[in-house]
Automatic annotation (TrEMBL):
One of its GO terms (molecular function) is DNA binding. This is Helix-turn-helix domain-containing protein. Signal peptide: none annotated. InterPro entries: DNA-bd_dom_put_sf, HTH_17, SinI_DNA-bd. Residues 9-61 form the Helix-turn-helix domain. Gene3D superfamilies: 1.10.1660.10. Pfam families: HTH_17.
Amino acid sequence: MTEETREELLTVREVAKRLRVDDTTVRRWIKSGALEAITLPHRGKRQAYRIKKTTLDKLLTSSVPTS
C-alpha cells in the first residue's frame, strides 16, 4: 500500500471527541448503520472499530445546512 492510498483511521473515542458526543453514541450509530466503520477482530469487553477520516469528513459536510 502506498502512502497516497493509505487512509487515516480514527478510533471510536477520537470520533466521539470530534463530534462532542459519548463513545456509546458513536457505537450506536455504527451498529445502526448510520456511520460506516471497519470492524476489527474482537478482543476484550467491547468490539473494536475504526472509522475512515474521509467518512467522518463526509458526515460533517453533509450535515451542514446550505443556504
